[in-house]
Amino acid sequence: MSVCEEISHPQTSAARSRGLRGSALLFLACLFLLTGCSDEWGWYVVDPSTKSGAVNLKFLLQGYWYTLALSLTAIAISVVVGLLVALPGLSSSPWLRGISRVYVELVRAVPILVMILWVYYGLPQMAGISLSVFWAGVIALALSDSAFEAEIFRAGIQSIDKGQYEASHSIALSYTDTMRYVILPQAIRRILPALGNQFIYMLKMSSLVSVIGMQELTRKANELVVTEYRPLEIYTVLVLEYLVLILVVSALVRWLERRLA
Amino acid sequence: MPDTRNRAVIRMDEVVKTYGDFYALKGVSLDVMAGERVVVCGPSGSGKSTLIRCINQLEKHDSGTIDVDGLRLDGTKASLESIRQNVGMVFQQFNLFPHLSVLDNLTLGPMRSRGLSREKAVALAHRYLERVRIPEQAMKMPRQLSGGQQQRVAIARALCMEPRIMLFDEPTSALDPETIGEVLDTMVELAETGMTMVCVTHEMGFARRVADRMVFMDHGEIVEVAAPEPFFTAPESNRAQDFLRRLLSH
Is residue A218 assigned to a domain? Predict the structure, then answer.
């Protein structure tokens, strides 16, 4: 009961970031206790003070590069595609609205893992092109995400008062100028939390691209487990890697929200 | 020489506007001369807002004709463009752009749709802020201003397009009583410059002061058109009598 009450109460952003830091500390404390009181753990496998441990740790951390490059490229593309899909969805033409709707419904219905497999194995055969693992991953993630971005943009744009359009018309702004200078700047401010959420989701979903052999965080961990046979420690490091990444991104999004508010 | 003073700049003929089964305008005809100040009044739902929103085509009329400045409003892009360049509009809810400073609110239209340089647009903006008597607020954000100041910024924004006609859609209805006066003063000063104005308002003091003609509407029709003095002292129609009695009784 008391938990429910706490959740339903709106928190200030300071309290929320305190909560975030608190939960991270709690997680680390639990981990520390676990490793201390159990004989099952063998941290030597990633112990930076030994030579092999340092090599292993470096191997795992190298995955950050691909995870970040993949997610950032994919999100950049999906935001643009999402906007291009959302705008016709708000048009007065039923045809344009229909096309936008069909795109969203179709793309949204495909699981991300299935999309990755289809883009990597299916698309090259169908289109007669060859795709690197990286670009297959980027396209699959961007495609999947664009449907969600489109819905976020649509909601954001629809939330803007129609008086803003009327004022824009009354000073003879074109549709493009109205969107660019009046509607989108206001809409993006409103949807920033949702965009940030989606970005974090994408960072996590990039782990699925490991199935086609992308050398990102998860793939690195999988490969090391095969050679070292210490899944507990290595996957725990993997969890921590994602935790750090997402806490940093989350803090960045909050900073951006405050700056644009 | 043509007599520009008597040329109709707005000519509405049998204009009909429907929303589904509801007739907002049931064939309205009205001419407005250059430099004329027309005040439109009537009970809520009488179609007065729809009337002026049709003049700058925020609402598209279903039938009848509207000519503004000799140009037929036929829904084409060219006619829309021209109308919005030449007709300024002030809204009940101000509709300032909340994410832009007062100055940027004023320069956006001149720069993007009139193609003025930033320098010229800024000079223009300062001139009209001076005109509405808030030159010191240029760098503020709209939310930092009082309602009356915001509405004066909105008037300045419309004037920055250097329109030939200004439309006012209940410009003081959303204001606190103490700030209504400053907005009305601005409108009176604007009227004195010879601007063609069509105002929907319930401010009868203002109407008496500036109106050349009163237009009384009810149920989507123009019921009575008269000079202010006869209209206020002895309205001809029963509906106008009722309306004025109710308006003045509180």
Answer: yes
pLDDT for the residue A191: 94
Q: Is residue B79 part of a domain?
A: yes
First to last CA, chain B: 49
Q: Given the DSSP bridges, would you call strands B8-19 and B63-68 parallel, antiparallel or unpaired?
A: antiparallel
pLDDT at A249 over 70: yes
Count of domains for chain A: 1
Q: Which structural domain range is residue B23 located in?
A: 4-96+164-248
Segment B128-180, tens digit of pLDDT: 999 999 999 999 999 999 999 999 999 999 999 999 999 999 999 999 988 99
The interface predicted TM-score (ipTM) is 0.92
DSSP strand pairing (B63-68 vs B221-226): unpaired
The answer to whether residue A1 is domain-embedded is no
Average pLDDT over residues B97-105: 96
Total count of domains within chain B: 1
Q: Do B112 and A163 touch (CB under 8 A)?
A: no
CATH of the domain at B44: 3.40.50.300
Q: Is residue B33 part of a domain?
A: yes
| Structural domain contains residue A176 | yes
Nearest Cα to Cα of residue A31 among A224, A238, A192: A238
Question: If you average pLDDT over each of A24-28, A43-47, B42-46, B149-153, which comes out highest?
Answer: B149-153
Q: Tell me, what's the pLDDT at B199?
A: 97
Other C-beta atoms within 10 Å of A174: how many?
14
Q: Which of B93, B112, B114 to mutate to test the interface with A (most CBs of A within 10 A)?
A: B112
Mean pLDDT score, B103-129: 95
- Would you give the DSSP letter of residue B18? E
Q: Once rounded to an integer, what is the mean pLDDT over residues A163-170?
A: 96
Å between A173 CA and nearest CA of chain B: 6
Residues A123, A125, A127, A131, CA torsion sign: positive
In a domain, A28, yes or no: no
Determine, for residues A189 and B99 on separate chains, whether the beta-carbon distance falls below 8 Å: yes
What is the distance between the alpha carbons of residues B1 and A176, in angstroms, rounded to a whole number?
A: 42
* Residue A79, SS3 per DSSP: helix
* Chain A hits for B93, Cβ within 8 Å: 161, 163
User: Exposure string (b/e) for B98-109, b if CB count within 10 Å is 16 or more?
Assistant: bbbbbbbbbbbb
**Pairwise CB contact (< 8 Å): B161 & A169:** no
CB contact under 8 A, B161 and A164: no
Confidence of residue B33 (pLDDT cuts 50, 70, 90): very high
Q: Decide if B25 is inside a domain.
A: yes
* CATH number of the domain where residue A88 is located: 1.10.3720.10
- What residues make up the domain containing A168? 44-260
Which of A170, A181, A183, A192 should one mutate to test binding to chain B, selecting the residue with the greatest count of B CBs within 10 A?
A170
